[in-house]
Amino acid sequence: MKWTEQQIPRQDGRVAVVTGANTGLGFETARRLAERGASVVLAVRDTEKGELAAARMNGDVSVRELDLTSLESVRAAAAGLRSTHPRIDLLINNAGVMYTPKQTTRDGFEAQFGTNHLGHFAFTGLLLDLMLPVPGSRVVTVSSTGHRIRAAIHFDDLQWERSYSRVGAYGQSKLANLMFTYELQRRLAAHGTTVAVAAHPGISNTELARNTPAALRLPITLLAPVLTQPATMGSLPTLRAATDPSVLGGQYYGPDGLSEGRGHPRLVTSSPASYDVTVQQRLWAVSEDLTGVRFPVGRATAAA
Which residues are CB-contacts of 39 (< 8 A; sequence separation ≥ 6)? Predict the structure, then answer.
């Protein structure tokens, strides 16, 4: 049976924080959670756009400023949430950038790695202790099929200072999202309450593609009706990962269509590289060093 939004359980009494929720996939994710009764926090860089998005949703929706390109902003957003929300049931790391020209975050990180991975790594670590006491709580991180394309964790040049590939840098950041999820799940397993899950939207027609290389824009525009799906469909894997009672920690959800490009959400597998435990743990240690954030869950053994 195909999984649809009608299968999202009621979320009454649950608190959901969704990053990048003022548009696209994040908006659709937050909107549906609010409609099902969750208290939803839109964690967004532009709060004016966030308020406009919140006004289009039905339910208990609030807005919190979060700029993932700034660790100062990440810490401020986490501190603000801690003062207003003593518990969090769902943290959905949805925000992201794709194929940006070479640029750095405010902390000097390559923009895609800094935003997509390091910003969410820090934000999760600063909020996780609000989730650990909550049975059924989940951290859902949105990756991409791009984690398979020219993707590796370049420990010798994480910030792409020697040479820059916008496609390679995006692939690294999305591979990092998955490795973070898998290592986080190992660390969470002993606690028995919170789980870490990943999802990807397939090929969705959203603003994320605005930095697509010029040579690809026309072909993508012409083929969009065949290759892509709207954000309403693209958000379903995230929603399933966040709400389906049968979901297990460490799983990965994506569309069920050809090459996982579109369709209804199902359990999928990621690239062989993403399951490398040694690289996952090395990435975790580097991410802690770069962000200065330590998680309230210790390192697990590879067999855990």
Answer: 14, 15, 16, 59, 60, 61, 62
Cα dist. 175→37, 141, 144, 148, 270 in Å? 33, 11, 8, 7, 9
List pLDDT tens digits, range 252-300: 999 998 999 999 999 999 999 999 999 999 999 999 999 999 999 987 6
Q: Is 170 among the catalytic positions?
A: yes
Q: Alpha-carbon distance 239 to 243, whole Å?
A: 6
Give tens-digit pLDDT for 199-236.
999 997 655 455 555 545 444 444 445 567 999 999 99
Is 225 exposed, middle or buried (CB count within 10 Å of its CB: 0-12, 13-18, 19+)?
exposed
Q: Which of 99, 164, 170, 252 is catalytic?
A: 170
